[in-house]
What does this fold into?
Amino acid sequence: MKLSWKTILLWTLPALVVGFFLWQGTFATATGNIGNNTATTRMTYGRFLEYLESGRVVSVDLYEGGRTAIVQALDPELENRVQRLRVDLPANSPDLIARLRDSKISFDAHPMRNDGAWWGFLGNLLFPFLLIAALFFLFRRSNNMPGGPGQAMSFGKSKARFQMEAKTGITFDDVAGIDEAKEELQEVVTFLKQPEKFTAVGAKIPKGVLLVGPPGTGKTLLAKAIAGEAGVPFFSISGSEFVEMFVGVGASRVRDLFKKAKENAPCLIFIDEIDAVGRQRGAGIGGGNDEREQTLNQLLTEMDGFEGNTGIIIIAATNRPDVLDSALMRPGRFDRQVTVDAPDFKGRLEILDVHARNKKLANDVSIEAIARRTPGFSGADLANLLNEAAILTARRRKEAITLLEIDDAVDRVIAGMEGTPLVDSKSKRLIAYHEVGHAIVGTLLKDHDPVQKVTLIPRGQAQGLTWFTPNEEQGLTTKAQLMARISGALGGRAAEEEIFGYDEVTTGAGGDLQQVSDMARQMVTRFGMSDLGPLSLESQGGEVFLGGGLMNRSEYSEKVATRIDDQVRSIVEHCHEISRQIIRDHREVIDRVVDLLIEKETINGEEFRQIVAEYAYVPEKEQFVPQL
Ligand code: ADP
Ligand code: MG
Ligand code: ZN
It folds into this structure.
């Protein structure tokens, strides 16, 4: 665990304070530990004098130099039993002793308990000492380590909180597959390089561009490429770095950043994850937003403060444009939005080309096949994929990356590390039936994506896996396809039930069922594919943590909620029945494939289809099964 000094300060201060009171408490009782520990009730001095007068006092013991007394007295209310009472005596009561002597009451004086006082004194000294030592230590750390963990105390001097690269060395050639975004940003390069072109005709150069897109799609890369192409310095900071413990730190960082940028104009400021500061003001529960609002206000002020033509362009990136404060998008601020989407097939092809430049690929490797197998991969995923493949190649001591390494790397990026297969056992058979269940339902349903391979080699969380080749070219997904997917996902559990019986079903289907519920629910609440009709009952996207999104939680009544649940259940039950029927009807071929799978551990889609075709009609599917 990494300890920052901020955390240490946060935790030690209360600890010290609590410690202090504990010490104090301890010593208070130590010095006040009067007499024989018997619990004593307190009595007022006046009552004591009354008791004295009426002759009820038996004995008096004086403590603490005569400031306290423990009195033994007969209590009339308790049948004259002797009671121990504690009395605080006034400072000057010299006649008391005389009176006691006169009344012949036995009295004694006890010395001060010095040892306790001594400890108390030391304890009192220790606390300030510890505090001073801790503060001293903290200040020293923060002064010695600029930009280091001592930041808590440097109050926004923003030492190295933003990075500056004089030359990014990245050009548009390094960014692939997002041509529209590149084209739009080409203009920004011109703004930075030849502002005269625009100012001559009276055009105001835009100040800010917002890059919107999922993580890993190349937003940072794109911003760097703009700076690289224009040959200007690149200042970057992440929105989360603005949000600090102390109010005002973020705002002063913004000021510093803009000050530095103005000194270096023309230049480019890149604010990553701007949603961390730029969230709608006033959203969120409870306090704690002051700091963020101040930071955001400062950012807005700075953006308004400089003229559009000073040669500073701000590029911000986010994957949640919906939560941004509308003030950020006003003209004169981030008035341009550029969407950076996850790449399509062609985009992936180009990105793979860029990242394959410095890698040795065997001749049989076709970049196209890789691009086909990786729908939904972002640029970062693809870069990672090729790197994984290169690592595997080196580990296997090969000359160049072959299809085998690519294939393994894809599996690994999608499903995690490969584990060791189980030895032949009942649970291995069960897993085999489960996977073949998925595969056969997927193969026999016309609208399901084709099987790519079935394997019993565990990966990540999964004990076995059935891979399908998604066909993304068609763009939209039909209701029939969704139903087929749900049935396919239920195929594993259906096989367990049909072959081993209800009592033997396993937890292995947990993930499948999660997917099934999600898909079915979306069909009902988002796509209007149920008896509830074409209603959109839930918006896309998860909740925004603390802020936005909270207010529109229930877009429907309790009654509708019940109906949604009913519809979801009826979809799932229908699909479940379909897959159970398929399993029941094809028991023979399932048994055969399971035996083969246990023997070979992996069966590819082609082979699987051939075997199934001997027993049943396998519908033709439009497919781009890459030869991997
Ligand atoms: P983001 O900022 O959108 O999260 P990054 O720009 O940090 O994504 O991308 C991370 C890495 O992924 C880049 O350094 C690059 O290697 C790779 N990458 C992402 N998108 C692309 C792309 N369009 N072209 C080439 N490489 C890309
Ligand atoms: Mg980034
Ligand atoms: Zn499964």
User: Anything to note?
Assistant: Confidence is low (pLDDT under 50) at residues 20-37, 142-158, 542-552. The two ends are 42 Å apart (CA to CA). Residues 145 and 542 are 40 Å apart (CA to CA).
